[in-house]
């Protein structure tokens, strides 16, 4: 049975939580008295549907069920996780968390999205909430700061990992946890730079994203500076940069007066910088960029890339009736091109993923490759039969056309979510000795498993399009 | 004739400047009295050679010449750009900049890599330097803060753009320019978090790279927050987050005492976090991640991705004698797979790039596609003939096998830098009406240009491997 998450309070953060749980197969109930809640959350989930699955090279589990409630007890009934995301007012948090602790199952995790309050403050009226502070967009960014009793945070962390997030357990409770302290420091200094006319909002954004922003997306502050210390290491870096703290560079000690003039100045500059795009367009741009960068980090496994790989490894392998299903996935926007559809390269990429999966199935897996043997593709033929758009599901089945000796001859069919045949990829591989870089016989167990498939598929009709050359008449 | 940059002071920053100029075709002379300078700069350039060209889908210009000097006048003779990167001591900067202004051509830009000093301080003894403050690794990160007289910074900005950088002209000189003010704020707050035992260096790094670091690599602070304001916009966000500045969250007002205990604490935690990797390994990890993320940003053109595309558009198109050269590029690490060589997908990607370039050559370019017509690939055949490793050059030539009516039949040969034939891609395309999503006749000028190539190539021998089907005997 699907697990259930109750989301208390819609809005951008609540909607992000709803999407994260829902797309990971949880049932989600939303409690919000705002009549616009369903529309607002629907828009966040729509954004999530076009980006979250695109992070992975396998399909996420089937979505859970989504429901909306105006009765709190009904919303939290049977919940495994209850997440409060109401506005940042302590009296309101006390009231809501009190009601939740009464109505929710005793076994449910009660999480609060608060960015500022400590658990001791949240719970001073007897609630048992943990801080589970996420980052926008919640459906893409892995970070959740967890603060609370160790017994609660350990359990919460396990659940968060199971929905692809990165729980950071904050061991000592402090105002604003960790990340927002750093953010506030930058925000405060940036307000001064704008107020003093040193830089505009656009110039500050360029100073960040053209430089240290790129560093921080993959390593953080300290690992980056460790490198800057060069061969002499972290101590050398500290010796160089430490004394600067004494210099009167920043205006951090002062708080800029937060008046209408300052708000108008910032809002006006922000309009000039980003006003040509609507918030929805900005969100989609942000999400496409995040997906692209996080997919890039899969390669090294750094930061968010490592979280993706670990999460994907928990997904169920798809199964087929007659032929093995070797790929089941969503098409990311980054796979599309100027013609508005999946680029030819990625038809072959899906085929190559199917080959990799089929190799795994017969035992020629990562360990086999690490031990010095593999298959190399020597020849492939692709028929592009139909267009595939970003966000569509793709399912690949694999038929073995031959598997004697060093040779493995495969035929992949790429089907769209609607069942249409989008492409076929016929491919011939040779078994290789990776040290000699020469063809060689596969290990006996691999050969035996491949022979089983070859025999099982020998009775199937030869697929249409197999053995074609380019330009051959039908 | 190649332009010349003189790099004054080796080290990580000087080496990064040397690499950036050199790989963009400039001659580079290095002045440094350290006997280790040549080795140190050589290592930085080696890093740059494996990463900078991998950002682009075209080949960079041929490298310039690199020379080392212990005579300042000799080093700067004939220079167009002189970059000072000596340690951050004002008296030393005065001495070096004074000597440079005397020895260098009057037409040369004199840039200083200083992170802290203002131009008015640098020039108080009569030098004419501009601040050109780069970010590590200088060969990959686009940002350079330019501070100085407008006549000088405009000229400098043009040169920086021509080597793929993003000059940010700082209009009002202030200590530490813009980016380092923000960095210092985060550094200062982070030191407190470590000192107070709230978080380790590793935890702070996770708080950054799993969350806001990913946001800041593509948008900055303000554009990100504009989105957070949701439909209600920037003013709404300000109203929410502004008052927090009054809260006693951060310890920004104090300076932590910078003693050996603090240095040991930070250095010890950093060792525990990153000590399993050498600085060289960390650098390569960082560079591969940067290349992957920056390549991902090419798609949307956000931030560094936009800089890459604009720079690449200035590269010369390769030319061939008999057949058009349709691709000339380096193979990025991200194109390789578990077998330690270029993955099959990217053989087809190079072929697809060749097709795109050939379409451009016959006039079926971006404007033609925008106007509603294009070519779609219907069938491709790839022979994988030899392995290609990361960092190798790849050159593709294109032969037209047929070009009548709606059809375009191409044969791409992928050659490695050493001249070996790595693959052939035979591909058949159909001309399409993008609105109807149906095949259609090409525009007359496109048809005419394609016919020219078809006729010119008709006399060439039919390429070996054309018309093959998968598994056909040789």
UniProtKB/TrEMBL annotation, chains A, B:
Top-level taxon of the source organism: Bacteria
Major subcellular site: cytoplasm
Coiled coil: none
Residues at which NAD(+) binds: 9-14
3-hydroxyacyl-CoA dehydrogenase NAD binding domain segment(s): 5-170
Catalysed transformations (reactions): carnitine + NAD(+) = 3-dehydrocarnitine + NADH + H(+)
Annotated 3-hydroxyacyl-CoA dehydrogenase C-terminal domain residues: 178-243
Signal sequence range: none
Keywords: Cytoplasm, NAD, Oxidoreductase
Enzyme Commission numbers on file: 1.1.1.108
The keyword NAD is assigned to this record: yes
Pfam families reported in the protein's UniProt record: 3HCDH, 3HCDH_N, 4HBT_2
An MF annotation (GO) of this entry: carnitine 3-dehydrogenase activity
Enzyme class: oxidoreductase
Pathway: Amine and polyamine metabolism; carnitine metabolism
CDD domains: 4HBT
Subcellular location field: Cytoplasm
Summary of subunit composition and partner proteins: Homodimer.
Function: Catalyzes the NAD(+)-dependent oxidation of L-carnitine to 3-dehydrocarnitine.
Family per record: Belongs to the 3-hydroxyacyl-CoA dehydrogenase family. L-carnitine dehydrogenase subfamily.
Name of this protein: L-carnitine dehydrogenase
Species for this entry: Albidovulum salinarum
